[in-house]
Amino acid sequence: MDEPVLLTGAEGRVGRAIRGGIAEDYDWRFLDREPPAEETDHEFVVADVTDDEAVRDAVEGVGAVIHLAGDPRPEAPWNSVLQNNIDGAQTVYEAAVDAGVEKVAFASSNHAVGHYETERKPDIYRTQDDYLLDGSELPRPSNLYGVSKAAGETLGRYYHDEHDLSVVCVRIGNLTKGHPPIDYERGQAMWLSYRDCAHLFERCIEADYGYEIVYGISDNDRKYYSLERAKDVLGYSPSDNSADFTNQGEPKDDA
Ligand SMILES: NC(=O)C1=CN([C@@H]2O[C@H](COP(=O)(O)OP(=O)(O)OC[C@H]3O[C@@H](n4cnc5c(N)ncnc54)[C@H](O)[C@@H]3O)[C@@H](O)[C@H]2O)C=CC1
Ligand SMILES: O=C1O[C@H](COP(=O)(O)O)[C@@H](O)[C@H](O)[C@H]1O
Q1: Under 8 Å between Cβ of 182 and 248
Q2: Radius of gyration of the chain (CA)
Q3: Angle at the Cα of 30 (from 187 to 200), degrees rounded to 5?
């Protein structure tokens, strides 16, 4: 992509994973409501994603948006997810359409579909269980945060159908640095390594798609999310697998 790429929520964990992997590959415009913790070579906009005017300025001239900014807490209260996640996503999509942006990658979550696990856990988190969600299922949010992510996906569907914006919703699993979550089967089943995270969002910038929902996890043996759509449509090719680590997060000798 020749045009700049807007990364909202650039100062957060997912933003840092992306920046750590592909910072040099694009002409970035970072946006966060927090000022940068460290100096950066790229343009940095300090703004709230619910600030319509600031977002309109930020999307001007960009080719793609990776929209991460929001309240990431599964236990976040309604007022916060309504404002930061739902209103924020609508503000970004609307501004993107008006500015003629080609594509938006939206950071959705495993919590948009968390209640598919309810009647199947803990087996669903284990390698021998072959149940897979593939992105075509209806949302079954596990909390109000998950409801806000399902809303962000639906907003994306609308902006695609009504305005032809290319939208990919990435249902991110559990991003941790260096090793999978320790002593946590759910987290190991949906682990997303930093390098796979950066690679996946690079594919979201580069690939051609209309409207897609994909799962954002590494190629974990324990997975109950299919990676087929991410592989077929985006060309995602994950490198990591939580099975290469012990339950305590140590690399296995033979991995
Ligand atoms: N970290 C994970 O494992 C997962 C993350 N996600 C989603 O990915 C996105 C990023 O998550 P993390 O990086 O983990 O969270 P984080 O809290 O580390 O980063 C979020 C960033 O967004 C900024 N932000 C929050 N509300 C904002 C607003 N209204 N306007 C401007 N900036 C705002 C914060 O200052 C922060 O720098 C979130 O949308 C989250 O729901 C989804 C699933 C899993
Ligand atoms: O969406 C998110 O999901 C991950 C995993 O959820 P958890 O309930 O198993 O911890 C979470 O760590 C992250 O903060 C959240 O944004």
Answers
A1: yes
A2: 17
A3: 40
CA of 107 from ligand 1 middle (Å) equals: 8
Q: Which has the closest alpha carbon to 64: 93, 41, 44, 36?
A: 93
8-29 pLDDT per residue, tens? 999 999 999 999 999 999 999 9
109 Cβ below 6 A of ligand 2: yes
What is the sign, positive or negative, of the torsion defined by CA atoms of 65, 69, 75, 80? negative
Q: How many helices (H) and strands (E) are present in the chain, helices listed first? A: 8, 9
Check if the beta carbon of residue 31 is closer than 8 Å to that of residue 8.
Answer: yes
Interface confidence: ipTM more than 0.95: yes
Kindly list the structural domains of the chain, giving each domain's residue range(s) and its CATH number in brackets, ordered by start. 5-244 (3.40.50.720)
Q: State if residue 74 touches ligand 2 by the CB under 6 angstroms criterion.
A: yes
**pTM for the full predicted model:** 0.98
Interatomic CA distance for residues 236 and 193, integer angstroms:
13
